[in-house]
Design brief:
Layout lengths: L3 E14 L2 E15 L4 E5 L6 H8 L7 E6 L2 E2 L5 H10 E4 L13 H11 L11 H18 L16 H13 L5 E5 L7 H18 L2 E5 L3 H7 L2 E6 L2 E7 H6 L4 H9 L7
Parallel strand pairs: 3-8, 3-9, 6-7, 7-8
Antiparallel strand pairs: 1-2, 1-4, 4-5, 9-10
Helix pairs in contact: 3-4, 3-5, 4-5, 5-6
The structure holds adenosine-5'-triphosphate and magnesium ion.
């Protein structure tokens, strides 16, 4: 069974046009599956519906039609308990690493917050005060080490870090509950190319080490090609082409996919 199954999913929004209200379809009849352990790359021009699709997988936006199953659970119809179980399994990482971090919280609180929130259903055994604090601290050190940062970050605030470091902190936080799936929505688009490349390599290493499954959304065809097992191409809300990454890049069938490939320069060699 695939980890994620998107079945004929659509999303439309009411749009006011003068005195009338019309519906605009932003995702139209999309079906795809994400297998455990793979990276599905999702590309398409701005406004093609990538983020909307990602938010429907995360259960943050309700589809107007169709279903999204994550590990067999329909995320739009899950009960509270089912949804908590699914939430632990999938975590988002978004484009803007600063907006995602609460500026008033210390890094220690930020990366362990998911454990505290989910502690009731097994995130972290609620121990005595001091023990619990020590356990959270050592968990935070472990998570930071996984993303290449050290303990000295724990008592500092987000503004003290660079964009790349903030994205590492976001990733550490996303890993706190040991998810199976990361929804990566343009995780390096806001970063310099070289810093973005480091984050991409970090994501690759984490995927190997933790058997993670990725949905990787990006405008950069070379980056998507580098990371993905398969690639899905969206245009105006529709899935226009999907295939093995190398095959799709070497022999794109759709003119639109050819344009996307032609529009992006090759990555500089590392
Ligand atoms: N909550 C909303 N209400 C109304 N329209 C919306 C809403 N969310 C998204 N849209 C519209 O849906 C369309 C698709 O948006 P979406 O953010 O999914 O595109 P995207 O492919 O992620 O684009 P980008 O590459 O710029 O991030 C856009 O036209 C957008 O304006
Ligand atoms: Mg988007």
């Amino acid at each position: 069974m695939p980890l994620v199954e998107v079945n004929s999913v659509s999303k439309s929004y009411a749009r006011r046009a003068g005195l009338h209200s019309q519906r605009q379809t932003v995702v139209e009849n999309v079906s795809l599956a994400i297998e455990a352990g793979e990276t599905l790359g999702l590309v398409g021009e701005s406004g093609s519906g990538k983020t909307t699709l990602a938010r429907m997988i995360l259960g943050l936006v309700k589809p107007s039609g169709g279903t999204v199953l994550v590990d067999g659970t329909d995320v739009a119809r899950a009960t509270g308990a089912q949804m908590r179980r699914v939430r632990r399994q999938m975590q988002p990482v978004f484009q803007d690493p600063y907006a995602a971090l609460n500026p008033r919280m210390k890094i220690l609180e930020i990366v362990t917050e998911p454990l505290v929130i989910h502690s009731k259903d097994g995130g972290l055994a609620p121990g005595a005060g001091g023990d619990r604090r020590a356990a959270l601290r050592s968990k935070a050190v472990e998570l930071l080490a996984e993303v290449g940062m050290d303990e000295s970050a724990l008592d500092r605030h987000p503004h003290e870090f660079s964009g790349g470091q903030r994205q590492r902190i976001n990733i550490a936080r996303a890993l706190a509950l040991r998810p199976r799936l990361l929804i990566l929505d343009e995780p390096v688009s806001a970063l310099d190319v070289s810093v973005g490349a480091q984050i991409v390599n970090l994501l690759r290493r984490l995927q190997r080490e933790q058997a993670l499954t990725y949905l990787f959304i990006s405008h950069s065809m070379p980056l998507v090609r580098y990371l993905s097992t398969r690639i899905a191409v969206m245009q105006r809300g529709r899935l226009v082409e999907m295939g093995e990454a190398e095959e799709l890049c070497a022999h794109p069938k759709e003119a639109y996919t050819q344009q996307l490939i032609a529009a992006t320069p090759e990555l500089p060699q590392a």
